[in-house]
Amino acid sequence: MRKITDLQIQKKNPRRVSIYLDGEYAFGLDRLVAAWLQVGDTLDELKIQKLQAEDARERAVKQALLLLSYRARSEAEISQNLRKHEIPEEVIESTLERLRKEGFANDTQFAHAWVENRNTFRPRGRRALTVELRQKGIAESVIQSALEGLDEGELAYQAAHQKARKLRAGEWDTFRKKLSSFLARRGFTYSVIQPVVSQVWDERKAEGEPSNFEVEESS
């Protein structure tokens, strides 16, 4: 048995408490975990292990919630971040389970929200969206579900129409190459790109665009 001889709030991190056993620093705990400890209490090795395990779980949840406070994350992103903070693997899995139950982690919702956000602000093709979601660690079945019913023709038109506002319809061949390259970088296939570029060209010419051509190379 070892006796708690001092409890000190850490100067660099006031949310943590330094535990001193038998006159020497032993380990640190989250203030919530250390709340019931008092100077004079005795701890055996099993109790110490339980306290440290509880502390790891508390740290993991707080870190995950901090990460999620910036934006939604996939489970793989959460796991990767916790590993960077040296959270044990078994604690990571239990943390994810807790986050799932409380609605903070859901890859299906994440994937659908990701696709919806892209469709609204930066339309992309199925190929590009698939790559992005794979990079987020999303399972293939979840990706396919999120992309179900995707209208690539409409999305390509939206992207092309936005881009065309920055272009001036000069020579058809130049316009076609520039806009086609832009849409290809957005992950659209040739079969989708070709009719969309022609449609946007016809619309821009109908609006009476001047003959000079300007283009901003951006994706």
Keywords:
219 residues; alpha+beta; Arc Repressor Mutant, subunit A; 4 domains; 4-stranded antiparallel sheet; 10 helices; 11% strand; elongated; disordered C terminus
Description of the structure:
- A hairpin with a 6-residue loop joins strand 1 (2-9) and strand 2.
- The chain has a four-stranded antiparallel sheet.
- By secondary structure, the protein is an alpha+beta fold.
- Helices cover 58% and strands 11% of the residues.
- It has four domains: 1-43; 51-104, Orthogonal Bundle (Arc Repressor Mutant, subunit A), CATH 1.10.10; 107-147; 152-206.
- Helix 2 crosses helix 4 (89-101).
What is this entry, summarized?
This protein is of the alpha+beta class and 219 residues long.
Helix content: 55-70%
Order of helices and strands: EEEHEHHHHHHHHH
Task: Report the count of strand segments.
Answer: 4
Q: End-to-end span in angstroms?
A: 64 Å
Count of helical stretches: 10
Residue fraction in strands? 5-15%
Shape: elongated
The biggest beta sheet reads: 4 strands, antiparallel
Mean pLDDT, as a whole number? 91
Biggest sheet, spatial arrangement of strands: 3-2-1-4
Low-confidence spans: 211-218
Radius of gyration: 27 Å
The overall number of domains is 4
Structural class from helices and strands?
A: alpha+beta
How would you summarize the topology of this molecule?
Blueprint: E1 2-9, E2 16-21, E3 24-30, H1 31-34, E4 42-43, H2 45-68, H3 75-84, H4 89-101, H5 107-121, H6 126-135, H7 140-147, H8 152-164, H9 172-185, H10 190-206
Antiparallel strand pairs: 1-2, 1-4, 2-3
